[in-house]
Specification:
By secondary structure, the protein is α+β, with helices and mostly antiparallel strands. The chain contains three helices and five strands. Strands 2-3-1-4-5 form a five-stranded antiparallel sheet, with helices on one face. A hairpin with a 2-residue loop joins strand 2 and strand 3. Helix 2 packs antiparallel against helix 3.
């Protein structure tokens, strides 16, 4: 019972999902001007996304103060779990550099929290073209 006739593949694959969010983001938004927060978050997510891209991952979405990156979808590599770990470490270093710059400008920033899930997935049908790559997974839920 594949989905090929509906335009999606039923190929199983192992995917690593990396979640990153900002601890203290809500308090930050209450203290600072919205434009300052938006500019800082745009800079931060651009830097974090560049680190995901650098190791062959795919930023699936950014919602509020959270980034979700996939390793193994839409493009699979033999070492996707390792790539996700490398991205997480690179993202921590990038965030530390941003925190130092923001401290100097007296604009405190929230700390980066990360968690990962790894598991077998199936692509879900996509009724229209979009940036996200939906997957059905038995990977553990995000803590």
């Amino acid at each position: 019972m594949g989905g090929e006739e509906h335009g999606f593949s039923s190929e199983r694959r192992v995917v690593a999902v990396l979640f990153a969010d900002m601890a203290g983001f809500t308090a930050l938004t209450e203290r600072l001007d919205p434009e300052v927060v938006t500019d800082a978050m745009n800079e931060i997510f651009a830097a974090l996304g560049a680190e995901v891209d650098a190791v062959g991952g795919h930023v699936d979405k950014v919602v509020g103060d959270e980034l979700m990156a996939l390793f193994g979808a839409p493009v699979a590599h033999e070492d996707d779990a390792l790539r996700a770990v490398r991205a997480a470490l690179r993202m921590q270093r990038a965030m530390e550099a941003r925190e130092e710059a923001l401290r100097r400008s007296e604009e405190a920033v929230a700390a980066l929290r990360e968690t990962m899930a790894l598991g077998e997935t199936l692509p879900l049908p996509q009724p229209y073209e979009r940036a996200q790559t939906p997957v059905l997974s038995r990977a553990g839920a995000r803590p």
